[in-house]
Amino acid sequence: MASETLKNSSKPVPLLEPDIGPAERARVDQCLADNWVSSAGPYVSAFEKRVAGLANRRHGIATASGTAALHLALLSLGIGRDDFVLVPDWTFSASANAVIHAGAVPVFIDIDPESWDLDASSLEQALSGLDRKPAAMMVVDPPSLLGDLPRWEAMARGHGIPLIEDAAGALGSRRESRPAGHFGTLSTFSFNGNKILTTGGGGMMVTDDDALAEKARHFSAQARTGQVYRYDAAGYNFRMPSLNAALGLAQCDRLDAMLSRKREIAARYRAFFDGNNHLSFMPLNNLQDSNAWMSCCVTDTTDAAEDLVRHLDVAGIMARPFWCGLSDQPPYQAYPAYLSGGSARLSGRVVSLPSSSTLTDQDLDRVLAALQEWPHQQGLPS
Q1: What is the pLDDT of residues 76-113, one digit of tens each?
Q2: What's the predicted TM-score (pTM) here?
Q3: 342 located within any domain
Q4: Which of 231, 249, 267 is the last residue before a domain boundary?
Q5: Residue 323: which CATH number?
Q6: How many folded domains does the chain comprise?
Q7: Closest C-alpha among 87, 175, 142, 149 to residue 296
Q8: Does this entry carry the keyword Translocase (predicted)?
Q9: 140: which of 97, 292, 338, 358 lies 20 to 30 Å off by Cα?
């Protein structure tokens, strides 16, 4: 059980809370004063330019959510009814849901449980085993990590299929000097409240392709052809409101500071878990290339993960079991899957830990002390 000191700490330690300060309030207040509250006005386009620049892309199309950005990416590529889209099995449901909502078929690809990246053999089996060429390959950046994206780009190019980088929580990370969001034909971000940069709710598709960007903007604004109410397709209202964009612009100004604090937190966790017998840190080796958005540990078993979350909860510390494989869950069981056991091995054993950039050193000390006092950690019964 947690010590009396930990149990009696008055304020709970949050998992991932937004880092909002006076600059964000001032920018949103200015947006209200300017009376730009819908998707019209200068705030959305300014935010699109800022994020596209962070990803070293020519175009950014802001959306109401990260899921909408993924859906828009698929629509822009012309992906629809019965098309195959390769998707990691170990990911958040939105990656697969966007494919399904576009009318396409997710094909689940296993992951490597050591790197949390795609499993190359499972990917090769899918590419050679399907009865027709996939319409796209979607690579999801794991939390705080970028996989071997140059490799997946080359593989997709060799098979003549577009690569979509689902960089939902990866803004600020890099791979081989290239920023997250700069890989593949197009990429998407999420700006949900728990992300490193938040707009409250929102997302963005980024690309260098002029035609794809134009198509995405068109679909996101109901596919309206002009000022009159004429349409050339069944479009969507995926646009981001200006209030959200104003918040995002202020967050962009503070991104470097938030990244720096996240990396400090991740470094403390990594040092704590080094040499630990019952808990290991996520496969995060190069902190300078990581945005350190979410720090996670890996337990011996799923029961241990659940027990650890309960133990931290008693201590007033929020933690949460992370992703589980999708292919064996009821909404996705009917879809093709190429599995090698990696997703099953990792599912239920990963626990996400408090990682907010607002986390104080005192609260981080509380978390580490609670982890140290976990009975399983000490070889004691829970």
Answers
A1: 999 999 999 999 999 999 999 999 999 999 999 999 99
A2: 0.95
A3: yes
A4: 249
A5: 3.90.1150.10
A6: 2
A7: 142
A8: no
A9: 358
Alpha-carbon span 234 to 242, nearest angstrom:
24
Give which of 354, 346, 359, 357 is closest to 371, Cα–Cα.
354
- Render pLDDT for 21-44 as a digit per residue (tens, 0 to 9): 999 999 999 999 999 999 999 999
Region for 27 from its dihedrals, namely left if φ exceeds 0, alpha if ψ lies in -120 to 50, beta otherwise: alpha
142 and 79: one domain?
yes
Q: What pLDDT, on a 0 to 100 scale, did the predictor assign at position 5?
A: 47
Range of the domain at 353: 255-373
H helices of the chain, in order, are 4-7, 22-34, 42-54, 66-76, 93-101, 120-129, 149-158, 210-220, 242-253, 255-273, 302-314, 342-346, 361-373
Asked whether residue 223 is domain-assigned, the answer is yes
Query: Which residues are tagged catalytic?
Result: 195
Helices vs. strands in the chain: H and E counts, helices first: 13, 14
Residues 6+ apart with CB under 8 A from 143: 169, 282, 293, 294, 296, 322, 352
The answer to whether residues 310 and 204 belong to one domain is no
Give, in order, the Cα–Cα distances in Å from 197 to each of 41, 186, 203, 287, 369: 21, 20, 10, 18, 29
CB–CB of 242/31 below 8 Å?
A: yes
For 81: left if phi > 0, alpha if psi spans -120 to 50, otherwise beta; the answer is beta
CA distances from residue 76 to 35, 83, 204, 236 in whole angstroms, order as listed? 31, 14, 13, 12
Domain annotation covers residue 182? yes
The CATH number linked to 27 is 3.40.640.10
Residue 13 lies in a domain: no
Other Cβ atoms within 10 Å of 235 Cβ, number: 15
Q: What is the DSSP string of 243-265?
A: HHHHHHHHHHHTHHHHHHHHHHH
d(CA 69, CA 232): 21
Q: According to the model, what pLDDT value does residue 1 have? A: 45
C-alpha span between 290 and 293 (Å, rounded): 8
Specify the DSSP element, H or E, that contains 173: none
